[in-house]
Design goal:
single chain, alpha/beta, Urease, subunit C, domain 1, TIM Barrel, Diaminopimelate Epimerase, Chain A, domain 1, 3 domains, 16 helices, 23% strand
């Protein structure tokens, strides 16, 4: 008889304490109480000390390569950059350490705090090397004149602003694909065993590279890209923008994707965008796996329509904790009660999942869970108390399958993939503080990927 790969002893599973979980290969072989069935010795033996053993968490919306690149880029957002003078100071300081002609890459620029950005303003900061700065939403780049010159884009983008042109920029200014190892380590430290990369410009080569990460990566890519088995999520990413959201065009795109056997994920942030997204799905019809990403401002009248259509919402509770003060200051008063809805959607029977939206947001899912429970932002500002969830509901936002966020919760049971998150404490204690330091070990496919 072969020796099991892993045994986690004396753990809590689904509220039942004192259990042993045996893993053989990449699957859970048994979940039992020792007096009922003595657990064999194993290659790896972990005494859980009564800690809860959960299914591994899944981040349903992030951007792996952008998060990896952020770690080697200069932060151009608050508190480092709050105006044009601080932008110039940060960029010049970083530029002094680079080789002549080397690109200077900035991220997280917040135009609401530091003012609009174009090539002229970037030129005022740095002229002697190519510079590109991504805005905080991750949707647009701004290049200085030197950056436009070396890419040959000056005639096409006179103001230096490129919206939704990540693939073009990669073609004209190729950059080495950033290493994902550091990102994977962080994910494992948080108990995350799977992610969904929702970058619309992903290529088949990008998806192949995602195989190397220590977590299970699924990713969206265009239907024109060759599918990568085990990675490609047959979901088309469609980005709506308030200034040119066309319901007819969006509905046509959705219909074509459905005809090809693909589901559709629509990026919609503002009120106008979410209303247009729902209207487009209502016109085109829905298919299993269809979802709205972000749904940052979701008017009450759209909720029953979303429920009737069977749409999934993937949202970001942590944005309330990190930006609640900004939302209160900048959002239209009519939109404040519509921000990042949670309980309203669950009560209506809408499938609801959550993601970090890294690098726009932080990878920490436990912070997002706390925000979903408290709805508390900076300076203890409460934003949308009626949307508060219980700790169990908040946890479930990260326990749905990759292809069905908010769907049936994955469980630690015989035959399930051995993607697991072991906590230091039983859930009854953990639910009182919901913090990343609760994670004791992360197991992916039966292998211990991280241990405290």
């Amino acid at each position: 008889m072969s020796v099991p790969r892993l045994v986690v002893r004396n753990c809590e599973v689904g509220g039942r304490s004192g259990l042993d979980v045996v893993v053989e290969g990449d699957r859970v072989a048994t979940v039992s109480r020792p007096p009922e069935r003595a657990s064999p010795s194993a290659e790896v033996d972990i005494d859980a000390g009564g800690g809860a053993l959960l299914p591994g968490l899944h981040d349903h919306h992030l951007h792996l390569f952008a998060e990896a690149a952020r770690r080697s880029s200069v932060s151009c957002g608050p508190p480092d950059v709050v105006d044009q003078a601080s932008l110039a100071r940060v960029l010049r300081a970083t530029g002094r350490g680079l080789r002549p002609g080397e690109w200077l890459r900035g991220v997280a620029y917040d135009s609401r705090r530091a003012g609009p950005l174009d090539r002229t303003r970037l030129d005022a900061a740095v002229q002697d090397r190519p510079v590109r700065v991504k805005d905080r939403t991750g949707l647009s780049w701004t290049l200085n004149t030197e950056g436009l010159r070396v890419t040959g884009l000056e005639s096409r983008f006179a103001d230096g602003v490129l919206i939704g042109e990540d693939r073009l920029l990669q073609e004209v200014a190729p950059a080495a694909r950033p290493d994902l190892g550091g990102v994977a380590t962080t994910l494992c430290r948080y108990g995350i065993t799977g992610v969904t990369d929702t970058t619309p410009a992903n290529t088949a080569a990008d998806l192949e590279h995602m195989r190397s990460v220590a977590v299970r990566a699924r990713a969206m890519a265009g239907p024109e890209e060759p599918e990568v088995p085990g990675v490609t999520l047959r979901t088309l990413k469609l980005v709506l923008r308030e200034d040119d959201a066309d319901v007819e065009d969006a509905a046509t795109t959705i219909e074509k994707a459905h005809d090809a056997g693909w589901s559709v994920a629509v990026h919609a942030v503002t009120r106008a965008e979410t209303v247009a997204a729902v209207a487009a799905f209502a016109q085109a019809g829905t298919s299993a796996g269809d979802r709205v990403e972000h749904a940052s401002v979701l008017p009450a009248e759209t909720v029953p329509v979303i429920a009737d259509l069977g749409l999934t919402i993937v949202t970001h509770p942590d944005f309330v904790a990190r930006r609640g003060d900004v939302y209160l200051a900048d959002a239209d008063p009519a939109d404040r009660e519509c921000l990042y809805r949670l309980r309203t959607l669950l009560d209506a029977g809408v499938a609801l999942g959550a993601g970090s939206d890294a690098p726009v947001g932080d990878l920490d899912p436990w912070s997002a869970m706390r925000a979903a429970v408290s709805r508390t932002g900076p300076d203890e500002i409460v934003l949308g108390a009626v949307e508060r969830l219980s700790p169990e509901q908040a946890l479930r936002l990260f326990l749905g399958p990759a292809a069905h966020p908010g769907g049936p919760v994955r469980a630690v049971r015989r035959g399930a993939l051995a993607d697991l998150c072991l906590l230091h404490e039983p859930w009854a204690a953990a639910r009182r503080r919901v913090d990343a330091d609760l994670v004791r070990a992360t197991i992916v496919g039966g292998d211990v990927a991280w241990e405290a």
